[in-house]
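Bit of a strange request maybe. I'm writing a small parser for structure token strings and I need a real example to test against, not something I typed by hand. Could someone generate the tokens for this chain?
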Amino acid sequence: MAWKFDNNIPIYIQISNIIKLQIVTKQLKSGDKLPTVRDLAETAGVNPNTVQRALSDLETEGFVYSVRTTGRFVTDNVELIQKTRVELAQQELDSFVTNMLDLGFEKIDLVAQLEEFLKGEPYGQTN
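Reply from user aminoacidic:
Good idea to test on real output. This should exercise your parser:
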């Protein structure tokens, strides 16, 4: 089944982001071999040139490396992976806070709301 893409963002960037997220969330671990360009293109339902561009960008950023005649592998650069994880978390937090403020919550309410959510309690429903 082909992946679903946002028409507002270039597909190669979206593929790169998907693979990067798989690395950061440890779905792909350091040293794992990536599928071939053709296999990824078939899975994603895109042209192999699009996948090649995404993988080239990932290689430039240091998330993957090539071994001649063997393929591409996930980096063992733990610092890069951790830094990216923190950056992605920061983006999620920024989005959460912005959305909550747009809903009319005050910043002071956000911590209590999050704590209750994590406890599995609806906000404002505690005894």
